[in-house]
Amino acid sequence: MTVHLNADPAELAKFSDLAHRWWDPDSEFRPLHQINPLRLDWIDGLAGLSGQRVLDVGCGGGILSDSMARRGANVTGIDLASKALKVAQLHALEAATPNVQYLETSVEALAAEQPASFDVVTCMEMIEHVPDPASVVRACSELVKPGGWVFFSTINRNPKAFLFAIIGAEYMLKMLPRGTHEYAKFVKPSELAAHCRASGLDLLHTRGMEYNPLTRRYWLSGDTSVNYLVATRKA
């Protein structure tokens, strides 16, 4: 079966060019390092990572994958950005991270090869970078076992999100490189919920993520107007 490659070459190149800086907490990836404990605790609190077989879709340099493995999960991280994956593999070796492996493959290809193979699937900060988000959601649903958890995080599409996530984060505060995000690719919660329902995923929890530029602190809240996370389960 031929699987269409649901990826934007420009997006892959963008993250590959920065690959060597993934694990520098003061680099362009500083926000990922800062929000990772929040995401990790939320996922672990709902799904219980210890002893679970977990797939991290769009893992990049492995920040979330590595931390989930250290919580006792058996983690597979996948991505199509070769350089970022090499950084993830090198970090796992240097840090002696247990029970984590990285594969260069698409989520759709893996779904065709290993359906219903994982207890938990995470897809964080990824669907706003692909041409067809619905395809990613569908593949994640195919990969998780019945009753398993699938987590997504992305950015809402509205004027406030444009102001905060692009103008604020990329141009004013310079937290991210310019061009990291494209407003047209942002995904409204209603759109993500529709993709989940169409893929057999029950949406159970939604949380927003907020940031204070003065204190440089992130926290989870009920405000999903900019960054948000959803937790779903396979029916």
TrEMBL record:
It comes from Hydrogenophaga crocea. CDD domains: AdoMet_MTases. The keyword S-adenosyl-L-methionine applies. It catalyses: a 3-demethylubiquinol + S-adenosyl-L-methionine = a ubiquinol + S-adenosyl-L-homocysteine + H(+); a 3-(all-trans-polyprenyl)benzene-1,2-diol + S-adenosyl-L-methionine = a 2-methoxy-6-(all-trans-polyprenyl)phenol + S-adenosyl-L-homocysteine + H(+). InterPro entries: SAM-dependent_MTases_sf, UbiG_MeTrfase. Gene3D superfamilies: Vaccinia Virus protein VP39 (3.40.50.150). One of its GO terms (molecular function) is 2-polyprenyl-6-hydroxyphenol methylase activity. Keywords: Methyltransferase, S-adenosyl-L-methionine, Transferase, Ubiquinone biosynthesis. Pathway: Cofactor biosynthesis; ubiquinone biosynthesis. It is an enzyme of class 2 (transferase). The lineage of its organism: Bacteria, Pseudomonadati, Pseudomonadota, Betaproteobacteria, Burkholderiales. It comes from the Bacteria. This is Ubiquinone biosynthesis O-methyltransferase.
